[in-house]
Amino acid sequence: MKKIAILGSTGSIGTQTLEVVENNGDIQVEALSANGNVDLLEKQARKFKPSVIAVFREDAAKELKERLKDMNIRIVTGMDGLIEIATLPETDILVTAIVGMIGILPTIEAIKAGKDIALANKETLVTAGHIIMPLAERMGVQILPVDSEHSAIFQALHGEDRGGIEKILITASGGPFRGKNRAELENVQVEDALKHPNWSMGQKITIDSATLVNKGLEVMEAKWLFGVDLDRIQVVVQPKSIIHSMVEFKDGAVIAQLGTPDMKLPIQYALYYPERRYLPGDRLDFWKLKEITFEKPDTDTFLGLPLAFQAARTGGSMPTVFNAANERAVSKFLHRKIRFLDIYDIISDAMEHHKVIPNPSIEEILAAEQATYERIESRW
Ligand code: NAD
Ligand code: MG
């Protein structure tokens, strides 16, 4: 029986991972974790009977301990707790469904402990791809992408010679504001930005889809995951999210993965790779679908994408600054402290004022993150 631990089991990816586990019935969940959602953690604990649960917030950890008195489950807390569940001797795979840069350290420790990583957390490769990828190779562990685009590329590359890649084509829905210009985005509200046309996801990534920052982060991840230069990565808008991404090969062949928008497919593919299993749910009906349309991304309006390319080209600590500035800006937007377009100004300002550290260590990455937060707090 495969054994897994989940960082962020109460979120969108975390709960869908548990649905996949439940449908299949042959994976043991050894560990759950969350920031502090005690109600859901208690339900998950009673259903999946893990041996340990990491609750980041200490008060919430105390409360969960009290509620689960009748069960034999260890409760751990803080960063040490996250690292502990990431490195449990009995697990095979760590699912990184946690949001934010908080996921980096536990993921690194898990790789050092020889765990395969089912990777959803974007920040890991965006900020520390230069450390993670060589480490994974050295440890002989697999980085199995959970994001639908990277899973699609991973599936398209199955059995292919990576040297034959000409181009990676990452598809984008364009988000809820596709077709709008800057003037029309001046006064958009949090509710408008949270209305994603195709996917139901956590709040942070949903805002990132509206700004196209999400697509920028995915470009950076693709660079690391598949070892391709940035000029070989192209973003193609395909509004209905039917084509999840494509690879063009040297001979001109393009291989794509298509399907209904359902994250359980890439999650299940990562958990059972290379095995394919039945997955309940809708299937594509090409008669109903009739057409699949494509557009060029509007990079004059949605600056998330060009700023991400700029950060990735600069490299070193710049992607960390791009990511940290965005993380803080999105949080401010969600709390209605800034306007939608301010997100771009905050990211540009942070990038302009950052002195790049080439090849940063984890400590330098975390320090660049902190310095970015401090700059933003002092100015916005
Ligand atoms: P979410 O907000 O729904 O869930 C986040 C999870 O992280 C929750 O379980 C939360 O408790 C946990 N968490 C947050 N801070 C924590 C902390 N300090 N300690 C422990 N746990 C903490 O987010 P999501 O949409 O599931 O996304 C998770 C990650 O996966 C993100 O990096 C996102 O970019 C990526 N991702 C998500 C999707 C999607 O469809 N939702 C698709 C691709 C990639
Ligand atoms: Mg995606």
UniProtKB/TrEMBL annotation:
Coiled coil spans: none
**Which stretches make up the DXP reductoisomerase C-terminal domain?**
258-372
GO molecular-function terms, A-Z: 1-deoxy-D-xylulose-5-phosphate reductoisomerase activity; manganese ion binding; NADPH binding
Q: Which reaction does it catalyse?
A: 2-C-methyl-D-erythritol 4-phosphate + NADP(+) = 1-deoxy-D-xylulose 5-phosphate + NADPH + H(+)
What is the originating organism of this protein? Fusicatenibacter faecihominis
**Which cofactors are named for this entry?**
Mg(2+); Mn(2+)
InterPro entries membership: DXP_reductoisomerase, DXP_reductoisomerase_C, DXP_reductoisomerase_N, DXPR_C, DXPR_C_sf, NAD(P)-bd_dom_sf
According to UniProt, the name of this protein is: 1-deoxy-D-xylulose 5-phosphate reductoisomerase
Q: In which pathway does it act?
A: Isoprenoid biosynthesis; isopentenyl diphosphate biosynthesis via DXP pathway; isopentenyl diphosphate from 1-deoxy-D-xylulose 5-phosphate: step 1/6
Keyword Ribosomal protein part of the UniProt annotation? no
Residues binding 1-deoxy-D-xylulose 5-phosphate, per UniProt: K122, S148, E149, S173, H196, S209, N214, K215, E218
Q: Which family does it belong to?
A: Belongs to the DXR family.
**Boundaries of every 1-deoxy-D-xylulose 5-phosphate reductoisomerase N-terminal domain copy:** 4-129
Enzyme class, first EC level, given as a word: oxidoreductase
**Listed EC numbers:** 1.1.1.267
> What are the binding positions for Mn(2+) in this chain?
D147, E149, E218
Q: Which UniProt keywords apply?
A: Isoprene biosynthesis, Magnesium, Manganese, Metal-binding, NADP, Oxidoreductase
Show where the 1-deoxy-D-xylulose 5-phosphate reductoisomerase C-terminal domain sits: 143-226
Is the Cytoplasm keyword given for this protein?
no
